[in-house]
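Case study B.
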Amino acid sequence: MHSTLPQTPQTPQRPAAPEPPDPPEQRRIKLGGTTREEVLTMLGAGAGSLALDWLLYERVLPLSGAFGFLLCWYLLFLALYTLVGRLQWDALTVRERLATALAWSSGLLVLAVIAEQIGYVAVRGLDAARHWNFFTETMRTTAPLSPITSGGCLHAVVGSLEQLGLATLFSVPLGVVTAVFLVEAGTSRRSARFVTPVRVLVEAMTALPSIVAGLFVLGVVILTLGAEKSGLAASLALTVMMTPIVTRAAEVVVRLVPGTLKEASYALGAGQWRTVWHVVLPTARPGLTTAVVLGMARGVGETSPVLLTAGFTARMNLDPLHGNQASLPLYVWNYVKQPYPDMVARAFAGALTLMAVVLVLFVTARVLGRHRAPTERRARRPLRRARTTATAAVPAPAPTPAAVPAPVLAVESR
Amino acid sequence: MTAAVQPTDTRVPPPTPDPDRPRRISAPASPADRAFRGVLRAAGLSVFVLMGLIAFFLLLRGTEALRAVGWSFLTEQNWRTAAHTFGIAAVLPNGILIALIALCIAVPVSLTAALFISEYAPVRLRPALVSLVDLMAAIPSIVYGLWGLFFLQPRFVGLCRWLANHLGGPLPFLRVRGGDTPTSYTSSTFIAGTVVSLMIIPIITSLSREVFSQAPAGEREGAYALGSTRWGMVRTVVLPFGRGGVIGAVMLGFGRAMGETIAVALIISPVFRVSWHVLENGGGSISALIALRFSESDGLSLSALMAAGLVLFSLTLLVNVAAGFVISRSRSGASTSD
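Model:
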């Protein structure tokens, strides 16, 4: 026990500390981390279960398929690990190690699935995407059996970007204002009642089936108002999907704005409107940008709303107000169901492009979100300045939080 | 001061001063503020309006079909709009079956993944893992569909065949009727459910991770101080504390799984009878039905799809709102126990 204590600064100050009789015996006990036995046990169980799995799966039992093999390997590994662990540790330790192994393996499974998705789509998509014409041509002159060096997804990229831009234009103001409502509504008694229902409904809307959003816009815009299928209708359907996502993400960042900042603004005589516009929103701006870009990343991949509302075309349509407009998810959906290998290759290349757009948006959101910390610092600086001026003006300053513990310590030491 | 007067001096009660009451503070709102609050309230209420509009227009457009077949819309299994025999008695249970299979796979994986992120992963990796889960949620559903159709399905058939041949005896729902060819195991409810499970893992993981990480530090340390291992701490502190949030997350995942469209539509081959044999070729869900039948529909058949959409909408709304209340209740509990 004595050996694990870290060396305190008082020890050298003791006047005549006797030398400890056997200094070389003292070794620091390692508390965390993994020991060699643990690593070796895990490796041994892994290798043993792999061998056993191969023997059973490939030689003894009439089984086939890669997933079955991996599943059996995993189950055998767990069994073998428990057994080998039981030989050297007590039951409690074995359970602890097993829980750790389970947690790690499902974390790794999630990682593997993401890598798998991106990797598989990239490998299959490169068949068509490595020809430059894929990004510079439309499908206007491409017949089902045309070679892979003709045809591309330019019209779908343009359509996707236009629809996404319009949907962002519609959903961001609505989403951000709703988020501000959820945070600020407590100030007026009339709207405070609505906060919980609105929040629950927004949460429910994030899980709204995307096909229902498509059906809704189809029923309103196209069947009732009599408009034709167009990029605008598709962007309205995307708006229904994106607004709740933006609202939820924005509410979190708007709520993070320090209350002292708002109080300072109110104390200076600003109304609620000026406080929100000049203090809350600028402070939350980086986080809001992240919320918006995350919403865009979710919106650009939505297929079913677009499927019902945009129509489909193989040619370029720059006008989102009139006529069918293609988009990337629709492009993939349309060509992957065709029985021609080159068309399927094009669909995979379209999916790769879509994944690239999503990844770019996602990384942008993360990079923008990382700048949140400096904003908080910037937000705090005016406060500190205000505090120092108050100290200068008022003879008995209120104790700052940092100053409170010091007198208490002083009393105790006396 | 009161202590000095209190015990003996009962004859002459001191004149009680008026008790302190909070002064009524009224901040007259400027016209700009009043307009601003109006805008805020309008935005908040727009959510209600939007949901109401969705229900209203689906009902409006679906009335024709509902009137044509009446209550048999809920009991008819077939979907032949030209013959006026159509109903959701097959697609709805099949869709629920897909969602249940997805939950069976997703719940254990997501809960352990959430525990991994909140308890086991190295602290420095946690933000990266959280955003990876977010990324998994942002992968478009059509990519999941492509992956499931071209990558997962051919490698899954062996497992399905083994399950059907060896466990089909004691567990009849795993039986596969018809020939023992590879195609009789493809496009099944089970494979669609597996792909959907991957799509709902991120939502369940991120919501459960949120509630797990809110488990109070004092009780965690208490468990450790009593000699608990990490797993013991998780079992006795983190899991009971997060139960409400986890239930809500699972319900939300179920709602999401019910509404998944494109991946299911790509994989499943639609049949219009209830297929309890989950490994067998054929299945369906309302959303996949809409996506697959939409392009060839007009008039009555489109109206029938709208009616089916209304059923899907009301079911998922019910599940999601219930989940939302469960989650918000568990959140308010979290804020008081700190």
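The beta strands of chain B are 79-80, 85-86. The remaining cases will be described in the next quarterly update.
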